[in-house]
Amino acid sequence: MADRSVVFGGHPVTLVGPEIRPGDKAPEFSLVDPDLKEHHLGSTQGKIRLISVVPSLDTGVCNIQSRRFDQEAKQLSEDVVLVTVSMDLPFAQKRWQKEAGADRTVLLSDHREASFGTAYGTLIKGLRLEARATFVVDRAGVVRHAEYVPVVSEEPNYERALAAVRKAL
Predict the structure, then answer these.
(1) Which of 12, 13, 71, 132 is 20 to 30 A off residue 77, Cα-Cα?
(2) Dihedral of CA 127/104/106/150: which sign?
(3) Does residue 50 have an active-site annotation?
(4) Structural domains in the chain plus CATH codes
């Protein structure tokens, strides 16, 4: 498998892990929430998962992306679970969630094992950060949408991700 890259800080950086594509079986992962409770893909089995991946909630674009998806999720069915993944420590995620009033978002940290990043191909080699990406996983655990944002400082295509969620409903 050839190395894949995105632009971070104006320079190409290598992503670790496979490129996930629509139609793939969604890989399992092990993450922790702000209360240090472990979560897996199977924790939301039977739901449609909109997974928003950000480098750090404490940066401008990540904050915008996370708030935007939280607002959009409020308009979606309860059958949709919005998961935001970052390498932020759970305590920082909890602080951000309170400050943002993001009550529709399940925040999960990949800081322990980089389980998500290596399984979904979003881990930036050498930086221990996630690349910006979005995934939609249907009730059966099949990926219906995958976007790796080529320039990490840019926002994802919200409309495409949300259209995939609506189609999966």
Answers:
(1) 132
(2) negative
(3) no
(4) 4-168 (3.40.30.10)
